[in-house]
Amino acid sequence: MERECMEFDVVIIGAGPAGLAAACQLMLMAKQQNTPPPSVCVLEKGTEVGAHILSGAVFETRALDELFPDWEHTDAPIVSQVTGNHLYWLTNANNHLVVPEHLAPDCMNNNGNYVISLGLLCRWLAKQAEQLGVEIFPGFAASDICYDNNNAVTGVITSDMGRDKQGQEKSTFEAGIELKAKYTIFAEGSRGHLGKQLIAHYHLDNNKSPQHYALGLKELWKIPAEQHHEGLVIHGMGFPLSESDTTGGSFLYHFEGNHSEEKYVAVGLIVDLNYHNPYLSPFDEFQRMKHHPVFAQYLHCGERISYGARAITKGGLSSLPRQQFHGGLLIGCDAGTLNFGKIKGSHTAMKSGMLAAQAIHDELTAGFAHTVPGYERLFHDSWLYQELYQSRNVGANIHKYGQLFGGMLTSIEQNWLKDRATWTLHDNLPDHLSLKPLAKCKPITYPKPDGMLSFDKPSSLYLSGTQHEENQPCHLLLTDPMLPITSHLAENGEPSQYYCPAGVYEIIGDTGQERLVINAANCLHCKTCDIKDPSQNITWRPPEGGGGPNYPNM
């Protein structure tokens, strides 16, 4: 098939914090060193920058301080500084214990941080990038990687547009574009489909622990002014996940909107995807969580205005794959640079993008193309590596010893032992193998939503702005279409019908005549199915560019 071709020095996949920081740094370095600016293109599969961005988010400005030292004197959407930081152990549906500050891990201290909308920050970063000369193409999904005869990455191909459900060309058909680059940076976010291919193709995860993930669910609420405390940060552990022996945590952050009279809270639940009970529904756990008095006191009489969900890569340093290869780099959450101890990944993603830009700038300045960028040395010499090293045991502590005792061990390591904690723990069981058989688990009965604090999936999905072209090939591919019924249904109840936060997967039909229905148009692009399917039978591929959620400021 003939394709239109465009050539750039650098192509970046994903307009998140990592990709945009890389784009800005490339242009800034050329300007600072008085060298010709590279041609840089950023592909974004959402309808606009920020449409697919979802994060808590309590933001540490360390990387932004380096990238744009004068950001405080600009219109950057960073205004709500943290004013209070509370950690609770939720003992049951109604009670809680306050965790004293001196017992909480030092890494959870949020003094000097800000409560932000990461989507708005990415839109601001995109504006800075464009002013520096970067080209940003929203609505284009990168579907395939291009390699040369020397096995080096030479660019990507965007998704075809205008194919029907059978894959045939419609009257509106447009072939995908080939984007050639001297270097390609992959910054797709957690469980990026191209990043997944690169890790397998180049064996980037050799001698590494399996990667681990969580599912983050979030809602944005507008609340009465008398219930609002700008900058208040609340984290919770325990209920409701402790009732199913599952780890994770809850959060509620207070911040102001674009106008001072707009009072918002971001509320959410993070569910570790190494959970055991196939009946567990992260969505329903989240809805149940909001009824706890710690959260309900702020949400009563409020208005829910947005909902979304996204996977989080949280394996840490032990699971971090090699990030460089011939012709490119894998950065941010696509690789797994989140600091699980801090529960933050935006500043680390930005720093990984800035280091990637420096490595590629050095190669371009030397006149090279398709070589292996010298990223690893820069990474090991950076504060990013030091952060990830200091928090390397947080996830393994919790996975091995549970939320309470694992958290206590983390506090001992972080607060008292510090550099004397020289050991490294590993969790070698992949998340998709952690499910127990149905017969060994108790069914979970979730209360019906009350329409005030808790809601159903259809009404929640509506608030995500999710839209897809209906007449296109299904982007959720089953290696064996029969496996969900012939194997998973009896063994673990076909868990996709429970773990999907958007109701994409449904089992319908009478006993003995069941079949799996995939409602692909509902997909939030969270990637949980690609991660948690017990047989790794589901592969997430990008639908037509522009499809998916349309988050306004998540």
Characterise the protein shown here.
- Its main location: membrane.
- It catalyses: a ubiquinone + reduced [electron-transfer flavoprotein] = a ubiquinol + oxidized [electron-transfer flavoprotein] + H(+).
- Its EC number is 1.5.5.1.
- With 554 residues, this protein is an alpha+beta fold.
- It folds into three domains: 5-67 and 120-210 and 317-390, FAD/NAD(P)-binding domain, CATH 3.50.50.60; 78-117 and 212-313, D-Amino Acid Oxidase, Chain A, domain 2 (2-Layer Sandwich), CATH 3.30.9.90; 441-540, Alpha-Beta Plaits (2-Layer Sandwich), CATH 3.30.70.20.
- The chain is built from 14 helices and 24 strands.
- The chain has helices at 17-32, 62-67, 118-131, 193-201, 282-289, 293-299, 346-365, 375-380, 383-390, 394-417, 457-463, 483-492, 496-499, 528-532, and strands at residues 5-13, 40-44, 58-59, 80-81, 84-90, 96-98, 114-115, 135-138, 142-147, 153-158, 161-163, 169-174, 178-186, 213-222, 232-238, 248-256, 263-272, 303-313, 324-325, 328-330, 476-478, 505-508, 515-518, 538-540.
- The strands form six sheets. Strands 1, 2, 8, 9, 10, 13, 19 and 20 form an eight-stranded mixed beta sheet that branches. Strands 6-5-15-16-17-14-18 form a seven-stranded mixed beta sheet. It has a three-stranded antiparallel beta sheet with strand order 3-7-4, with no helix packed on it.
- Strand 19 (324-325) and strand 20 (328-330) form a beta hairpin.
- Helix 1 (17-32) runs parallel beside helix 3 (118-131) and helix 1 crosses helix 7 (346-365).
- The chain is globular and about 65 Å long.
- The two termini are 39 Å apart.
- The model has no long low-confidence stretch (mean pLDDT 96).
